[in-house]
């Protein structure tokens, strides 16, 4: 019986993780769960995108914005 309270305690900690899992799936459920948080995925393209936007403005950086989106999609995010 000692295992039941532990399962209840761990279930209380999981709702935040389950919400992230649900937001990463498509409506068809075909994509798998991303292995990273979106903020930590694709650091190279994120850095290039952010630097470009700061220096030149969002309108001039469509190439880097799209490259970052493609990277995030490859990581399993629905963006």
UniProtKB/TrEMBL annotation:
GO terms for molecular function: copper chaperone activity; copper ion binding. InterPro entries: Cys_alpha_HP_mot_SF, Cyt_c_oxidase_Cu-chaperone. SUPFAM superfamilies: Cysteine alpha-hairpin motif. Cu cation binds at residues 39-40. It comes from Durio zibethinus. It is found in: Mitochondrion intermembrane space. Signal peptide: none annotated. It comes from the Eukaryota. This is Cytochrome c oxidase copper chaperone 1-like. Belongs to the COX17 family. Keywords: Chaperone, Copper, Disulfide bond, Metal-binding, Mitochondrion. Residues 1-34 are annotated as: Disordered. The gene is LOC111287619. Residues 1-30 have a biased composition (Polar residues). GO terms for cellular component: mitochondrial intermembrane space. Its main location: mitochondrion.
């Amino acid at each position: 019986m000692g295992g039941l309270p532990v399962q209840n305690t761990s279930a209380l900690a999981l709702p935040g993780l389950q919400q992230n899992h649900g937001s990463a799936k498509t409506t068809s459920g075909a994509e798998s769960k991303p292995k990273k948080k979106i903020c930590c995925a694709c650091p190279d393209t994120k850095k290039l995108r952010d630097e470009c936007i700061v220096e030149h403005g969002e309108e001039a950086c469509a190439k880097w914005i799209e490259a970052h989106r493609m990277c995030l999609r490859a990581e399993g995010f629905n963006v």
